[in-house]
Amino acid sequence: MINRVILTGRLTDDPQFRYTPSGVAVVTFTLAVTRPFANQNGVREADFIRCIAWRKQAENIANYLKKGSMVGVDGRLETGSYERNGRRTYYTQVVVDTATFLEPRNASNSGEKQKGNSDHPGKIKTPLGGRERRL
Predict the structure, then answer these.
(1) Going residue by residue through the chain (135 aa), what tens digit of pLDDT does each one get?
(2) Are 47 and 99 in contact (CB under 8 A)?
(3) Distance (Å, rounded) from C-alpha 37 to C-alpha 97?
(4) Residue 62 DSSP SS3
(5) Rounded Cα gap, residues 89 and 111, in angstroms
(6) In this structure, are residues 5 and 76 in contact, taking their beta carbons and an 8 Å threshold?
(7) 110 phi, psi to nearest 5 deg
(8) Cβ of 9: how many Cβ atoms within 10 Å?
(9) Which of 17, 58, 76, 83 has the fewest CB atoms within 10 Å, measured from its CB?
(10) How far is 31 from 14, CA to CA, in rounded Å?
(11) Coil/strand/helix, residue 130
């Protein structure tokens, strides 16, 4: 059987990082993934997909991503349920095997453009000598 999920989207909030009681790093976040088609009103809607990552991958996501960061995730779909206060809750989430950071570290800072990028949005200035590098 194949259970593989590949998504690209933006984080809807800062990742929620913690350690389990046994000391394993875990992070959860929600990814907004725009649908490839528009609805009847011409608006492209998004799906909000819950993701979870473990160990070193969790630490990297917590350290380098924040609300608005664009990321690609590769993982598997997991469903389950739990009971709280006598009520059963069902969930579906992506267990992230690999997260690919799809923009420079400070690119999602309050929507501001990086200095020197106004003419060519596909280029960024490098710190050494100010030479441009195509993305």
Answers:
(1) 999 999 999 999 999 999 999 999 999 999 999 999 988 898 999 999 999 999 999 999 999 999 999 999 999 999 999 999 999 999 999 999 999 999 887 665 544 444 444 443 433 333 444 444 343
(2) no
(3) 27
(4) helix
(5) 36
(6) yes
(7) 45, 30
(8) 21
(9) 83
(10) 11
(11) coil
- Looking up tokens 């059987």 gives 1
CA distance 135 to 123: 6
Rounded Cα gap, residues 51 and 38, in angstroms: 25
* Separation of CA 31 from chain center: 5
Amino acid identity of residue 34, one-letter, is T
E-state strands within the chain = 5-11, 16-19, 25-38, 44-54, 70-84, 87-101, 123-125, 132-134
Note the pLDDT of residue 94.
97
What end-to-end distance do the CA atoms of the chain give, in Å?
Answer: 36
Q: Please give the Cα distance from 25 to 99 (Å, whole number).
A: 15
Tokens coding 50? 């819950």
According to DSSP, the residues that pair with 125 across neighbouring strands are 132
Lookup: tokens for 132: 């441009």
